Amino acid sequence: MPEPLSTRPRKAAEVPSWDLEADVVIVGFSISGASAALGALEVTGDVLAVERGGGPEGTCGGIIYLGGGTPMQKAMGFDDTTEEMYAFLLAALGPGVDEAKLRVYCDESLLHYDWLVRQGVPLATGPDEEGTMLASPEDDGFINVGGQEYAGGGLVWTGGEQAYPFSAQVRPAPRGHIPRDPDSDEDLFEGAVLKCLVRAAEQAGVRTEYNLAVQRLVVDENDAVVGVEGRRLGSLVRVRARRGVALTTGGFIYNDEMLARHSPAMLAVSKLGHGGQDGLGIQLAQAAGADAIHMDTADITLVLTPPMSYARGILVNALGQRFINEDTYYGRLGAEAAFRQGAIAYVILDESTFLDTSWRRPSWAADSLAELETEMGLPAGALQQTVAYYNRHAERGDDPLFHKAKRWLQPLAPPYAVLDLREQTFPMSAFTMGGLRTAVGGEVLRPDGSPVGGLFAAGRATSGLAVSGYCSGISLGDCSFFGRRAGQSAATGR
Amino acid sequence: MPEPLSTRPRKAAEVPSWDLEADVVIVGFSISGASAALGALEVTGDVLAVERGGGPEGTCGGIIYLGGGTPMQKAMGFDDTTEEMYAFLLAALGPGVDEAKLRVYCDESLLHYDWLVRQGVPLATGPDEEGTMLASPEDDGFINVGGQEYAGGGLVWTGGEQAYPFSAQVRPAPRGHIPRDPDSDEDLFEGAVLKCLVRAAEQAGVRTEYNLAVQRLVVDENDAVVGVEGRRLGSLVRVRARRGVALTTGGFIYNDEMLARHSPAMLAVSKLGHGGQDGLGIQLAQAAGADAIHMDTADITLVLTPPMSYARGILVNALGQRFINEDTYYGRLGAEAAFRQGAIAYVILDESTFLDTSWRRPSWAADSLAELETEMGLPAGALQQTVAYYNRHAERGDDPLFHKAKRWLQPLAPPYAVLDLREQTFPMSAFTMGGLRTAVGGEVLRPDGSPVGGLFAAGRATSGLAVSGYCSGISLGDCSFFGRRAGQSAATGR
Description:
Oligomer: homodimer
Number of helices of chain A: 13
Number of strands of chain A: 21
Radius of gyration of chain A: 24 Å
Shape of chain A: elongated
Structural class of chain A: alpha/beta
Number of domains of chain A: 3
Helix content of chain A: 25-40%
Largest sheet of chain A: 9 strands, mixed
CATH topology of the largest domain in chain A: FAD/NAD(P)-binding domain
């Protein structure tokens, strides 16, 4: 077995010559990397992005979490304020949120919206046919343009703002902004934002080096980062960064050794993202003295809806107990199931509510709850009791346990259909949210809070806005927002 | 505000002269430190332990988890095997257990027992008056000498071996070994093991330097650790380690900044241990390139029993749902409540079962469950339903939800007394279990798995045997076992 590659930084004194040079070197060219390039190019014309693949890497979805009264929110008739956005995110993403980062993200959300539009990210400001196609067919009830559950036209509820418990704490507004793919009307989720930002960075003058796999940082005698060392087709390549290096290398959901050491429960969950999320950038920075924080955290998606009608069912755990309001955001549902319910979640539906589709078949069906208990291996009587309690209150439009919205409250009646959500076409899937500890400007910090000189980072290689909870769109949001800042900081050499 | 102290390693080239020197320098003189000293003294006579306080530091309890058929287990009539110990701990401490460490700990448990006895740790091999006084008064039913719940005479059940789910997986044996304090018959939990090991290390020839607060590691041009730098009364003191440095500096439950970055839920929990558990040693090693792992994990104690009779009640969460078998280990109960039940746990007891003592007063008392629901703010009907289900099955000696042992199953009858376990004299309390990543020999590892030259660690400054779960006695167990190994490794300079 070959020795594992060392991630220890190379001493600059050992580097005989540099093969490439730039003021700012960006490692990893995706949403964060392209945003870092754009940020750096605001300061200097000499920016180089290196990427180990043959082109920009990423499979990220297309929702960006923005608010405080964006043009799209206004066009769709929603009121929102910076303070409501802040209050909601503090509750939804915590505990453990970096309040300084969240503060600046909310305060500058409208500016960031404008910046994204200037980079060519097409944030449509009204409902249109293409926009409403983005989320899900209207006949599912998933989108209700201008309505209360899901706003179409490029604006969606993506964090459970409109459901318990947040709806009782903060006036809800949808903040998931969906751009359209400029090259295609078909596929609006996949890659649209990446394409726009990469194109903008290229037009602004970023140089790119593909198929160059960075393996170590290069540090000077004061342990400041002054470049990177990598390989291209087996040849060593040394890249000097005159002002700073920005790491935008992604998370570590594809590194099972890191998961075992930081977040062992995630080994049992499917992976969201691409194989490049192997944590190498985090390790390179750690080897140079950086702190990595919240390494146990992950976003875990468990798809119950769409169709939204499935919120009329009840979710139960292995004991037949309900554990969450079924109308909440599927990231909250996934985290609850994965972290607190032993990764087990069943949805019990009326057979009339259940939709038999190509991608959803019932795991069990029965005429009585007692039968279901036997078939599902639930404790005898447990499901009967849960349904009896639920039905008794649902008849009165009440859900004393979890406060599901009235419109989804409907007593369950036989025959029943059950989905074991572990067996569905879209299984519980996760990406990591922990990573390098950074300051608001993207400066990578040591455990004592001092910066690692010359090193900056953004995106899922860092611990960003989301810590204990997640909302769709937060990743593209903080990757682009703090990516730009990391690039600016690297270019000023702060 | 003064700048926070830098934890970045000092370069050896910047050290003009050394104030102290030894083959092995041990930082932190407690259970792990004394064991490391003893291990190092097996190899070299030149070992120096430095401690920032005026003497050995520690308030640890007195249980050591050992098994595989120890003399005490045999004397008490319990059969145990290495494989059963391994199988139980793998289940109870995981997921995420370092199987190589667990393997050697179990394989060498009998040798470690003998070693502890040779160091003067008095592991009594039979029941006696002092022994049975250790745990709790017999009339509480807490101890039943030779019986199935708690074995007296220096041997206790400390991980839920005898309760669901482990009792169904592995033949149970008690493995919590309680030594007696050689200086006092009164206080057998507090400090006895520490005193014995410190005395043994002193007799074996360890030198000690108290009131010397280590602040940085010193590294050579290859980033290997060659000493430490600290302060005594404001004066800089440089200590050279010719062969190795062993960090035995404890965990970080008293460092709220580290908790916020790694384990924010722990900020809401009381702290177990002493203020020295501030994570400094972890930070010093990280700054020298070490990996820190499982930083979110903690042992969380929530005391329901003694008296063991309280296992006849039911534990419910904020929704009035049961969530665990009440006869399990209180560390499992604490982790379940803190991590998965929003840190809320109520125990519902018959008034006849409740004991009104100086340290336990009922939080609520009522003649009916409906009344209790109102007073406790539980959803109407939820507790009634839970108790009806529990009673129906308890009458038949059955607990289909959590498989509590038959002897504790007793239908609840009015009037009722309720304890809010958050309000009790012994609140939910925690210590951290995450820390430096080490190899089986105590070598501190970088994120890429390579060792940090010259640096070794043990105890709660490291991620040890316990990861996702805990058993009382594991800490003293791995602190002494891997402490000794870290000292041996440091002395051989591996």
